[in-house]
Amino acid sequence: MKFFSPVLTSAALVIAAVCGSPMMRQEEESSSCTLSGTYTSGTDVSSCSTVTIKSLKVPAGVTLDLTDVKSGASIVFSGTTAFGEKKWSGPLVLLTGTDLTVSGTGTLDGQSAWYWKQGTSITRPVFFRMSKVISSTVSAFTIKNSPYRMFSILSSSISSSDTASGLTVKNNKIVDSVNGIRIKTIIDDYGEVTDVTYTDNTLSNVENAIVIHGDYSKSEGGYTGSATSKVTITDITIDGLTGSADQVYDILVDSDVVSGWTFSGIDVSGDTGRCSGEPSGVPC
């Protein structure tokens, strides 16, 4: 997947239409569906083995809901998907499922310029949230102009027992962003982040290249400065990270809950930054 932040058939049946523009067309029952025009909240894609998203406008305050797709489905972004602007928490896209393939040559545009004009203290939507996504691949399409956090990966709705594992982030380009690679865990919570691999990613004009924090407060919406999270962060691999950043490292974790980090092939220009609690072998 390419990440850019201001710098993831003939119609037999018309399922929905907005302002005269067809939004979803289904070629064949339990087969291929196409989304185009203006998206309608609640559109049912549960019978579609392939969902092709062409040029699509998602209204302000509406989530492009991909949570009810079939196991093994393919989701293809082939045009430009643009999201209306609104002060809200989002997400703009929500994905859930098993054995999914999400790909394409299309672009998702979060229209970030509008948000930055409103100031820095407004509520901004998360762009692309993945919740309970299992054994799936997300690749190739472009995300640009993110109003806030580009990707949010959730594993369960119970924060005290979250597990995120088996994630590979590969061959991405992150441009004009606050953070490049980031893992953050919530203070005083328990859970596990394990077997996460970042391979051959590139940064350009990023503030913080590698961020791993165990002091995030949901209530405060930021870091506390005290790494009291009990979420274990183990078997983290960074193999190949190049480009430029203001600082390479911003790490604050409890040394008792981290192990098995392997960092190699890091060639990022910028200040070294700061580390606290990291396992041995991290070149900070």
Automatic annotation (TrEMBL):
It comes from the Eukaryota. This is endo-polygalacturonase. Belongs to the glycosyl hydrolase 28 family. One of its GO terms (biological process) is pectin catabolic process. The keyword Iron does not apply. One of its GO terms (cellular component) is extracellular region. GO terms for molecular function: polygalacturonase activity. Keywords: Cell wall biogenesis/degradation, Disulfide bond, Glycosidase, Hydrolase, Repeat, Signal. It comes from Phytophthora ramorum (Sudden oak death agent). It catalyses: (1,4-alpha-D-galacturonosyl)n+m + H2O = (1,4-alpha-D-galacturonosyl)n + (1,4-alpha-D-galacturonosyl)m. It holds the Pfam family Glyco_hydro_28. Its EC number is 3.2.1.15. Residues 1-20 form the signal peptide.
